């Protein structure tokens, strides 16, 4: 959620971030779960509460998604956010108040 504060609503970056998050949600959750209000937050809490590296989610259609697959996708999103923030930070100069 904090990442959305870096981007203006309606900007290309904001929409791209929403799209990336939806991709992760659809990796794990089915349409009924998403309509019921489950989100990326629920996925991350399930990952954090299970320390087993070999754990996985089994979807209703029988597909299994490993913890590693989800964490890899989340790391890609984090790297993308960091690159955007770095690009924006290059043009800013900080100085001490007088």
Structural features, described:
With 98 residues, the protein is mainly alpha-helical. It has a domain at 27-90. The chain contains four helices and two strands; from the N terminus they run H-H-H-E-E-H. The chain has helices at 12-28, 31-35, 40-49, 67-90; strands spanning 56-58, 64-66. It has a two-stranded antiparallel sheet. Strand 1 (56-58) and strand 2 (64-66) form a beta hairpin.
Blueprint of the fold:
Layout (H helix, E strand, L loop, with lengths): L11 H17 L2 H5 L4 H10 L6 E3 L5 E3 H24 L8
Antiparallel strand pairs: 1-2
Helix pairs in contact: 1-4
Summarize this entry quickly:
With 98 residues, this protein is mostly helical. 57% of the residues lie in helices and 6% in strands.
């Amino acid at each position: 959620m904090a990442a959305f504060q870096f981007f203006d609503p309606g900007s290309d970056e904001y929409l791209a971030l929403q799209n990336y998050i939806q991709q992760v949600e659809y990796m794990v959750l089915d349409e009924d779960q998403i309509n019921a209000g489950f989100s990326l937050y629920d996925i991350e809490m399930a990952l954090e509460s299970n320390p087993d590296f070999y754990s996985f989610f089994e979807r209703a259609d029988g597909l299994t998604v490993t913890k590693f697959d989800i964490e890899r996708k989340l790391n890609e999103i984090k790297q993308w956010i960091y690159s955007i923030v770095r690009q924006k930070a290059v043009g800013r100069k900080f100085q001490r108040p007088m």
